[in-house]
User: Fold this.
Amino acid sequence: MPGMSGLELQRRLVGSHPDVPVIFMTAHDDASTRSQAMSGGAAAYLIKPFSEEALLDAVRAALGTT
Assistant:
């Protein structure tokens, strides 16, 4: 994502819209980023490629409809 990291985007979203759930999707997984994303309140952290079902499960969990 040019110009901003996913973690920076998460910080901005949480700062301006704290009730909006964040689901991370990445092809470049690393433990530090995953840890920071989840401790920053991410509803899920998906590593590409992921299944349609994994995405739907993450969205349902984020919306509290599981």
In short: The beta strands are 23-26, 44-47. Residues 29 and 58 are 17 Å apart (CA to CA).
